[in-house]
Every structure is written in C-alpha cells, then in structure tokens.
Amino acid sequence: MNATSITPASTDRDRAKAQRRQDLLVEATRLFAIRGYAGVSLEDLGAACGISGPAVYRHFSGKSAVLIALLVGVSQDLLKGGKEVRAEGGTPSEVLGRLISFHTDFALARPDMIQVQDRNLEALPEAELHLVRKLQRDYISLWTEQLHLIHPEESATVIRFRAHAAFGLLNSTAHSAHSPRTSKKGLRKLLNQMATAALSTPVG
Questions:
Q1: According to the model, what pLDDT value does residue 1 have?
Q2: What is the pTM of this model?
Q3: Which whole-number Å values give the CA distances from 16 to 9, 23, 48, 190, 204, in the listed order?
Q4: Contact of 122 with 133, CB cutoff 8 Å
Q5: Please, are residues 24 and 50 in contact by the beta-carbon 8 Å criterion?
Q6: In this structure, are residues 189 and 170 in contact, taking their beta carbons and an 8 Å threshold?
Q7: Regarding predicted confidence, which is higher, 37 or 15?
Q8: Predicted pLDDT at 184
Q9: Residue 175 has pLDDT above 80, yes or no
Q10: Long-range contacts of 58-64 (CB under 8 A, 24+ apart)
Q11: How many of the other CB atoms lie within 10 Å of CB of 169?
Q12: What is the rounded distance in angstroms from the CA atom of residue 138 to the CA atom of residue 133?
C-alpha cells in the first residue's frame, strides 16, 4: 500500500477496529475472571461490548484466540517490562527492588488478569501453553539472576522457591484486593516491604 492509498477514512476505521479489539480484550478479562473461560460465550463477550456474537469474529477467529491474546500478551508484557527494569542497571538489590515494585504495580492494576491466568491457563492450546510457560520461565530468570548475586551461598532450588513465593505473595492481591475488608491505602508499600523481606532475609 502506498502513501496515497491511506485515507483519513481508512485510518479512522483502523483506529476504531483496534479500539474495538482492545475493548473485547478488556471485557474478556473481566468476564473470564468472574465466570471462567468455559462459562463465557462469544455472544456474552459481544454483548458486553454492544455487538453481536458473530461480530466478534471480525477481530478474533474464536474464543480460544481471545484467551491466547490475553495470556500470551500479558506474559510478553511482563517479560518486556522486567527486561527494561534490569536494563536500568544498579546493584542486585536495587534491580530486585525495582522488579518487586514493577510486579506489585502489575498485580494491583490487573488483578482480573491474574485470576484469568490462574484459572484458565490450561485451557490454552498446547503450542501457546508452551510459549506462555517459556515466557514465564524467562521472566522468573530475571529475578533469580539477581537473587543468585544477593545469596550466592544458596542453591538454585532455594532461589527459585524464593522467587515463586514472592510471586505468590504479590499475585494474591488478585483475590484479596477485591475484598471490601481490604484497605487499599498503603497496600503497595506493604506488599513491597513484605516481598523485599522475603527475598532479602538469609535462610538460617
């Protein structure tokens, strides 16, 4: 396509299509978190965005494609963000501290996405499940690299356990942050401090 064939009308249509796709992903995240992947139909998803079920096919080949876009996308976002944090440099403790802050912000901003992943990851097709697992391993490696430098005396098994325990703590906000009994004030600082203590304290 040359420059003269790109008209304002086509540009507007492209923007509208991209926005509709994003709206569908947002609603899919919300609905999958509430009902589970199996409990949501394309008709439900379309209705949430004010369109018919068949109209969803203009943006996704099917419900599985929606789940793929969500779970592959969030894993790619986490890995990209983690690499950017590492690229800023600093001591291992400083890099780890920024990784904790980065993941805390993610957990507090996207609790529905965490629930979707927790409940529906195994619903991915095999190839995409393998891809997500690889992206997750690469993301965890960003953390374990810094932990190995902070705790050189610890085994790889203990280091991985530390990292997974921190993720469990931070990702638990997907369940607790929605509770009316949970005060949101100071939650980010509390989570950062708790994760930092868990990852920094030597094992006796």
A1: 45
A2: 0.87
A3: 10, 10, 17, 40, 58
A4: no
A5: no
A6: no
A7: 37
A8: 61
A9: no
A10: 58/17, 59/17, 59/20, 59/21, 59/24, 60/21, 60/24, 63/37, 64/123, 64/124, 64/125
A11: 18
A12: 9
- Residue 40 three-state SS: coil
Task: Report whether 32 contacts 110 (CB < 8 A).
Answer: no
Check if the beta carbon of residue 131 is closer than 8 Å to that of residue 114.
Answer: no
Instruction: Report the alpha-carbon distance of residue 131 to residue 72 in Å, rounded.
Output: 7
pLDDT of residue 187: 84
Q: What is the pLDDT of residues 78-92, one digit of tens each?
A: 999 999 999 999 999
Token pair in block for residue 167: 């993720």
Lowest-pLDDT range, 15-19, 114-118, 119-123?
Answer: 15-19
Residue 186 tokens read as 């100071």
Q: Long-range contacts made by residues 125-128, C-beta under 8 angstroms, separation at least 24?
A: 125/64, 125/68, 128/68, 128/71, 128/72
- Please report the DSSP string for 144-181 in residue order: HHHHHHH-TTS-HHHHHHHHHHHHHHHHTHHHHTTSTT
